[in-house]
Amino acid sequence: MLKSKTFVKKTRSGGVMKIVREHYLRDDIWCGSESCSECKQESTVLQRDACIESNLCPYPHYLIPDTNVVLHQIDVLEDPVIRNVIIVQTVLQEVRHRSAPVYKRLKDIIHEKEKHFYTFTNEHHNETFVEREPGESANDRNDRAIRVAAKWYSQHLKTSKSDPDGLKVVLLTNDQGNKEKAEESGLLVYKCEEYIKSLIANPELVDQLALSNDDKNEITSSKMLFPEHLPLSRIQAGIKSGSFLQGTFRASRDNYLEATVFVQGEGEDSTEVLLQGLQNLNRAVHQDVVAVQLLPRDQWVAPSSVVLQDEGAAKDDDAEEEEDRALRISAAEAARKPTGKVVGIIKRSWRPFCGMLNVSHIKESTRHLFTPADRRVPRIRIETRQASTLAGQRIMVAIDGWPRHSRYPNGHFVRSLGSAGDKETEQEVLLLEHDVPHQAFSQAVLSFLPKMPWSITPEDMVKREDLRHLTVCSVDPPGCTDIDDALHCRELDNGNLEVGVHIADVSHFIRPGNALDKEAANRGTTVYLCGKRIDMVPELLSSNLCSLRSDVERMAFSCIWEMNHKAEILKTRFTKSVINSKASLTYAEAQMRIDDTTRTDDITKSLRGLNKLAKILKKQRIKNGALTLSSLEVRFHIDSETHDPIDLQTKELMETNSMVEEFMLLANISVAQKIYDEFPDCAMLRKHPAPPPSNYDILLKAAKSKSVEIHTDSAKALADSLDMAKVDNFPYFNTLLRILATRCMMQAVYFCSGMDSDFHHYGLASPIYTHFTSPIRRYADIIVHRLLAVAIGADSTYPDLMDKPKQSALANNLNYRHKMSQYAQRASVAFHTQLFFKSRGILNEEGFVLFVRKNAIIVLIPKFGLEGTVFFDTKDKATPNLVFDEEGPALKVEQHTFCIFDKVKVTISLDDSNIQHQKIRMSLIHPVIPGVSVPAPDVEPQAKKPKLDR
To answer: Is 0.90 surpassed by the pTM of this model?
Structure first.
């Protein structure tokens, strides 16, 4: 049956357009139930014996949740107890429109066979489709459509069963009006909460119920702690008039009473608004999109230099005292910033948060506080009857709402992750908190992998250049199995040199738009944790068919240059190829070959040629203004049985590290230019913005404290002045300065060339750049491979590749995934560092002051690449006399003044008093300040002899 609807629509130009929409209705849509004898269905989902033990419904029954139940109670629906659920099309469409994350979770549940969730297309069923009535809102029409579907199911199952009183349909809704209308229609209907509380099989499921409104279980007469949020209409009008600003709320890690709101502007016009005090933060949570109003200029303040963490009692009425303290901290600061207050929430970014339960001291209490692992997220009040079981566990909790009169938001328990401190549990927390997709690859994804055994066919060879005769080799860190790149260098008959960079041809195996491609695009990057790798693509590709291992034939995408002996490029060409790597070397093995003068084999000669050219290329890059910065990376030696870290050391870089890096950079620049020339509107490029001048403040002050002048007018000026920066009898000074300079830099980002005009890569001093050399572990490189393949006629294009907005959206996701990957990696290093120091007792080490705060100094320990904070206002000691000089910056503690780069000696130990937030604790040994410094321990554990890494 066909229904058509005609209406007119006004166009932008002022004309009128007639639109006809056709809607098909059918009589043959299945109900999906095993007990049905009427529907001619090929397969069934809903069980005949649909028993969920319930005091309210002691008979077999199916559940039909309305849209709000799905949106707010998705945690409950995911529980294994909840089975045989009918998701009507109306609900599915509404959920898709209102919440992409919930929609994805719902689709995942529907695909789980053991859950028996069935999608019923009521909008195309002749007996369940309903027209919107005159004056009826879209929401009321949808509620009516759900009720009609529930009514149809009840009658359909009665007429199709031999036992008419057996199987029933239960409608779940939290809307009182909807419930009353359903009851009038003779439907069996319950509120979600009363149904869940009736379940016998899993009484703990009540803990996972989201609160139906903000004021639930609260004392409504208590005083209001927060201003009211403005309605969206007022907010939008205020943003349009310029009285409000819209931005992303970013809470401080160090001070729970401080945050900034990042307001995105045109080009470089972005600004940050500072917020201080509970009332001005006004119930915003990290990453929420908020509306802020600037305060008058005389109320602007500066960011606090004090580390202030929320460790107080869980009271609502102690907020004012703490707020006053936070405001007093920065009232005397000179460097004031635009300061404002949150007036409304535009979009919540709430997600399930990992953390631990603070069990209430009140006996038999069901109300407890949950402390998130992320210090930027406030503590959350939840109700649970499992407190004794959950104590000491890592759990997940979701926020339901934040009433005006409550110091903390309300939420509900989602699930337990395992015992706190357990390595597997902590790794799971780390991945969840940094939103790293880490589930096993689905069968749909794996179905697009090549069938084994696999080999290169004659048809493949027709389209590729045969480079198997070349002396190609790879140089990587030890233990690397996902080998992306290989190199070769040989002398040509004309005396010039041929240099080739050969990159794994991953795009041959991953075709656009299939499930494997979509999964790789979503993951964006491989995530490297200590002792574990979360692959972007399945292992068959990452460690086998795409990995350029030695002595096997592999497909590659080659960038080949003809160079003279001055490393000047005479010709560049790109080709799909087949290679056979002659050696898979580590950096150390390659370095030994180069240094061993007795070796004259082809591989060694190739490496020497590459190394010689790389030195020239690097010298030229630095001459052009490229920066050579520094960051201390550490490498753990992991016990093969316990997987505990047994040694920790900073990574050692060799000439061969630099050799590989130079040719990867050169290949990326060459490819960037080629794809931009061919596709100026849709090339996937990478840029590194120049830092704003204010970013350099700390670097300039630090250098000035040692009478060294740093110029930051350009990358070249910075590079030159860093090269010149030396202090007598302080050889490590230059490295420290470069570490500090690294902290001043902006994040490099992917972008679509047609959506931006600034392509410059500040750190590399290159006018154009992209990523081409690591397609096994970065999805951006796969896109670049596809663009390059089209540019040289080796592959065909597809619509999304040439779609600017889609390429731009993809770049944004890749930037997010890359950032989260970096954070996850740092968190993994921090956790393994804690494990390393746990069994070491107290160590004495020398370090350097990297930053000075009002109440602390932040110390870098070069031996371990470790940063820690020495506090001078600890609770267990009387606070010494502290004088902070913002301009220095310097901190006078009693009679001693600390400046950046001062050498100190500290004790290092693990403070595990708070199992969730274990931290490395440092105490000052030298300089000796009476009443502040601690005596050095008599016996120090023997340090292990460092091993050569790379």
So the answer is: no
